[in-house]
Amino acid sequence: MTKQANIILICVDQWRGDALGSAGHPVVSTPFLDQLATNGVRFSNAFSSCPSCIAARVALFTGLSQESHGRVGYEDGVDWNYPVTLAGEFSRNGYHTQSIGKMHVYPERNKVGFNDVLLHDGFLHFARKNCVDLAEIDDYIPWLREQTGRSDADYFENGVNCNSYVARPWDKEEYLHPTNFITSSSVDYLKSRRDEESPFFLFVSYHRPHPPYDPPAWAFQQYLLDEMLSPPIGDWTDIFELFMQNGDPTAAFCKIPDRTLRLAQAGYYGHMTHIDHQINRLLESLVEFDLENTYVCFVSDHGEMMGDHNCFRKALPYRGSVSIPFLLSGPTSCNIQSGLVSDIAVELRDVMPTLLNCAGLLVPDGLDGKSLLPAACGNPESVHNFIHGEHAYGETSNHWLSDGKEKYIWFSQLGKEQFFDLENDPEECHDLSATSPRLAFWRERFINTIKDRPESFVDDAGNLISGRPVSPILNNIIKQ
What is the set of active-site residues? Predict the structure, then answer.
């Protein structure tokens, strides 16, 4: 066993921050992640500043804010040309680096600094449309075909859409589920494929609980009889009435029958419990293979609205979309405080400097993220006064600022402002923008944050300008 600590970063897709037993969720069962939180620190005000897959993962892999990395929305097919990356820094410092699961980079086989990548991104329309054979862009596909003895086997055979609220149990044996594939491959790496002469950085990236909502039958069925939470509906939701697409299972704004919502929740929470068990399988292998000198970090790229305020999916500025789980645990010899819950505002950009700090490596200059290791060891000082988030999202393109206690929102195309007191209204049901004296303070903060943006959101007099053209790519930073 090497003296230098190993690092495992576990990333899940579309897992909202309140959906952990340790966060007080009354329905979802996550006993092994709760144990991880008990053994380490849980950051209760963790955010994804650009809550969709690509932009969120750029922040995770580069330690940069969206203003620096240039991705402010969802757009496939744009090259990843970042010279300094999380995996690249570990590789440069002698770590054996391995990614297993979802990357969602471009080109799809771009290693972004890893020594090796075993890929399963899930159903990506752009990638599927532009490849000759799925096996070119997905290592799970040839494995599935080998296991089933069918040359046409595909994870989309059950027909459940990758961005819908439709749910049903997994249609194959459980060991064939993508979640199991990623775990089995990770355990195999730890057992026999890593360089035993070097410390390792392992990125374990689960596609679920992102749709399709198709967990194994046992995980799906255990939630069907539970009394589910009714989604919060704010007193301000009329702003989305023009965008409602009731009857479209892939719609971001819609009202659905209670039975349909219950099935979606069972599928979503079922994925979480399934992943929780598989993470336990992975963590137990550290003991089995004498690899307990390992830091483990658990995060999600973004959340899921799951019916909150009659919204689904992500890309919106509300809690279900932008709040994420963030857990950090280390070897028994480290100084991370067991059971600590830190309420400082943190973001995905902080993962890179934090993990480099855990490994005792230098953090490169120029990162926007900050190491959270001091906070995890009991230093209460904040690392960010607030987080600025945004998402280019058509007519509902938005920006927001939050310190975890209050939140300011501006819809750049609608010109609509919102303000929430999160301490007294954590579910964001009561818009105080018309009455709170705090609105002016946060608006000024916001204007100072975006006044130099290329979209020219602020005029010469310091006023916000709505309706400015927006793009998922800041072209002054990334040239297409």
Answer: 53, 104
